[in-house]
């Protein structure tokens, strides 16, 4: 029996995998900005912790392109701006509210530092998100061609190239004229390429596998 909303729109018209991973994607978008407040060391490499949810977004958008086509994945990327802007707006609103005097003192001091990114860094994050994730989807779809093979390799190449562009945009917009950026760019690019090789193919394969299972169950 077909499930319907009160407006008569069939829920079965939306693939189950798309519905589930669109919700997941929307939740991950603003997370990168908050986790980016921490710098993590992975062996000799240093990178913002926000790279983990960001690479997850890269992988999920590639998996959606694989299962449902580039147009759907592009739309998912654009819709990702909605939770991103809402999160930024709510963060700014909360920062303007008076702080409870009884709040735990270290948390009181740390909260504005973690949440209150500069306008320049916020703009850099928004621009880098839109360009790099859209570029990833485009590259992933172009590499697919007509064969549809080499899922892991396509995912890595698209992610690595898009992360190079992401780094160029984010570091330049955030820090140009404030500090030397060449060494910072090189270090970030190397770290992101390594993480793209390790993380992205695995997440794409997992999402595609779960997605196809969800769609098969929905069609049953």
From TrEMBL:
Entry's Gene Ontology cellular component terms: plasma membrane
Compartment list: Cell inner membrane
Membrane topology: Multi-pass membrane protein
Keyword Membrane found: yes
Taxonomy, superkingdom: Bacteria
InterPro entries, per the entry: YhhQ
Keyword rRNA processing set for record: no
Transmembrane region(s): 18-35, 41-64, 76-95, 121-141, 153-177, 189-208
GO terms assigned for molecular function: transmembrane transporter activity
UniProt main location, coarse: membrane
Protein keywords: Cell inner membrane, Cell membrane, Membrane, Transmembrane, Transmembrane helix, Transport
Family: Belongs to the vitamin uptake transporter (VUT/ECF) (TC 2.A.88) family. Q precursor transporter subfamily.
Function according to Swiss-Prot or TrEMBL: Involved in the import of queuosine (Q) precursors, required for Q precursor salvage.
Protein name: Probable queuosine precursor transporter
């Amino acid at each position: 029996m077909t499930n319907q909303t009160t407006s008569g729109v069939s829920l079965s018209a939306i693939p189950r995998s798309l519905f589930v991973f669109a919700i997941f994607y929307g939740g991950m978008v603003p997370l990168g900005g908050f986790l980016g407040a921490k710098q993590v060391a992975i062996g000799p490499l240093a990178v913002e912790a926000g790279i983990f949810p960001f690479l997850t977004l890269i992988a999920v958008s590639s998996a959606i392109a694989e299962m449902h086509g580039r147009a759907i994945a592009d739309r998912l990327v654009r819709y990702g701006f909605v939770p991103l802007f809402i999160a930024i707006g709510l963060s700014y609103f909360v920062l303007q509210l008076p702080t409870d005097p009884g709040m735990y003192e270290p948390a009181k001091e740390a909260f504005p530092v973690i949440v209150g990114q500069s306008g320049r860094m916020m703009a850099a994050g928004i621009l880098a998100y839109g360009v790099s994730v859209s570029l990833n989807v485009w590259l992933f779809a172009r590499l697919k061609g007509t064969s549809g093979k080499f899922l892991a390799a396509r995912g890595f190449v698209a992610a690595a190239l898009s992360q190079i562009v992401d780094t160029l945009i984010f570091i330049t917009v955030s820090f140009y004229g404030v500090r030397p950026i060449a060494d910072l760019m090189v270090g970030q690019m190397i770290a992101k390429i390594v993480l793209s090789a390790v993380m992205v193919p695995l997440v794409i394969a997992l999402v595609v596998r779960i997605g196809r299972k969800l769609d098969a169950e929905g069609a049953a």
